[in-house]
Structure formats: C-alpha cells, structure tokens
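note to self: dont lose this again. the chain is below, predicted strucutre after it. 416 aa total, dont forget to put it in the shared folder this time
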Amino acid sequence: MSLLRPMQTAVLAESALSVSQLTLLVKGLLEGDPALRDFWVSGEISNFKHHTSGHMYFTLKDEGAVLRCVMFRSQVQALRFRPQNGLRVLLRGRIGVFERDGAYQCYGQEMAPAGTGALHLAFEQLRDRLAAEGLFAEGLKRPLPRLPRRVALVTSPTGAALRDMLRIAGRRCPAVGLVLVPALVQGPDAPASIVQALVLAAAVGADVVILARGGGSLEELWAFNDESVARAIRACPLPVVSGVGHETDFTIADFAADRRAPTPSGAAEVVVPDREALRAEIRALAGAAGKAVAGRIRHLRQRLLAASRGPLSRPEAAFTASRTRLGHAAARLEAAGRARGQRARADWRSAAGRLHALSPLGVLGRGFSVCRLPDGRLVRRAADAPPGSAVEVLLQVGRLHARITAHGPGIGDSAP
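---
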C-alpha cells in the first residue's frame, strides 16, 4: 500500500478531475462516436414503465448484459403497438449520458417487434383487449331489419365500394332507399371521419348502416382497426354491417359490427332483400293459406258425411239443418282464405309503392337533382358553394360539371 506525502496530495488535488468533469469527458466520448449516434439494437424488454408524462422507461437485455433505455412521448405516440415486458424488439436510438446518475443510456427513436410486424401485433393487442372488455360479445349483436326502408352507406363517395353497393342494391330491390354518408377511409384523418359519419348516419332516417371500403393492404385498411371506430360502431343506435376489404381481410370493425360481410358487395346482399325472393315467399304463403282452407273444408265434409250415417241423421229436418250450417261454414272458410290472400297481395303492393317513393332514383326522375362539391359534400344552401366553386350535379341520367357564377334567392327565402 503506497502512501502519498502531503505535498504530493496537494499537487494531485489541484490536477484531479471532478466527478462532473470526468462524466462530461465520458459523455463527450460516447456521444461523439458516430457509431453510437444512430444504431439498431435488439433485446428483450424488462422493467417496463409507461409514465403518466407519456415517456417510456425500460431496459433491454440479453444473456450477457442490460441497457437502460428511455423513449420520449413524441416518439411513443408514433408506435403502432404497445411494448410490454418479455417482448423482443428492435430499437433504433442513440447513446447519451445521464449525468445525475453517471450512467449511459439509449434514447429510443423507433421501435418494432422482432419477428412480427408492428401493425399485426397492434391488431392482436387491441382485438384481445376489446374482446376481454366484452365489446365483441354475441349478446350485443343487433338483428338486421328484414325489409329496410332506407340504408345509410358510410364509405368514400369516389371509391369502387360505393359503385358495387349501388349496383347490387339496384338489382336486388330498387325500392330500398340508399343514403350516402361520405367518409374518409384511408389515412391519419380517416378514423375521426368514420366516427363522425356513423353519428350522422343515425340522423338520416335509415334503418341500418353499411360501413364499407374496397380491398387494400394492411396499412391502407388500418383506419378500420382504430379503437375509436370500434366504439363508435357499438355506440351507433342502428345495426351496423361491415364490408371492408376482401374476404380474407379481417379488421377490428368486423368484430365490433353486428354482422360482417366479406366485401362491400356482400354487405349490400346481406342488407337489401331480394325482390324476387320476397314475391316467391308471398306466393308460397298464399298457397299455404289456400291449402289450409281446403284441408279444413275436407275435414268438415268428412264430419258431415259421418254425421249423415249416424243415428242422429234419421230425423230428416235435423239432418238438413246440420248440412246447411256446415255448408255455410265451408263457404265462410273459402271466403276467408281468398280475403287473406288478397290482403297479403295488397300489403305487398302497398309496401312496394312506399319503398319506390323513397327511392333516390324516383326523386331524380321527378326533375330533382343532387348537387355536391368535389370533396363529396352535398350543397344544401347557396352559401355552401361560393361563386367560383366547381360543383357536380347528379341527374336521373348522367351528371353535369358546373361552376358557380352568382347567387340568387331560393324557394325557401323570404321576400325582401
């Protein structure tokens, strides 16, 4: 053991580094190394903590070492999955020195699951969490109306999904009214747009809602995996049918909806009844009613024949009266059967007439038109389309592209 003399101690004290100075020296060496300024590191998350500030604190570990890490709120908000203990991840970051603790740590910039996609993991995590909450319970599913008067279509006004649904609905039952509620179906603003459209759909007098989008990649369909969209579907007072993507695509919206259809076209087939099938059903009901009446008449005739052969049939007057009463009963049953069939046919004609009156094509056929802006918003007031605006006018046959030159008084304006 060496002992320093007092003079030596004084000299060393003057030249010795302070703890702060040494820490700053280490900090400069580490943070100045280009290899430590931007790198990817893999490891297993442990000691994970998501602070109320929004920052995440955790360590990455492997068999031989641990690395302290921090990820600030601005980077955390960009994550598409929820980190958790035991999850193996790839972390992009830089090395820095936390002077107060005299420790180096990694400041994370990006994070991705190792071995599985971030979007797929985020989908599974949200699905499992909402399922555990009971949001997808079968007991919450609402039945669809058998003969809807009006259907709200929540989709893009320019997408192929809308054209497919209009084609299918027009073929199956043109009398069913269709109302477009425009929504963004892709991009960062799409979830909020879909939520707002579902709220509006409940106010247009519809009986059922179709939420639809054509096929695309997982990233393009991601708006339908948003938690706010799933909760808006369950909060909608109308039953909701989802028709998103292709048959092999599944989204959180599919689990939350009251019925899932494989495609937008499939959703239209689920919601809009087949007119020919309804007519066939009415014919079958009328036939069944006629058979029931005929069977009842045969039964009464058999009873009459049995009575005519019994001891009570000997008095001629009693027999004649019984036969007359049975004949009257048979006539009443025949008349009731015919009336029931006539009422069924009249009810069908009345319902078909009411549905035809609600058809948007019928409205356009009476000379009305629909005017909308390039972004799909409907023009209801002159103020919605200032002079110079480009508009599209939908007619019964074809459409017009026009530009607003001036405003004038409308039908509903009061005289000056």
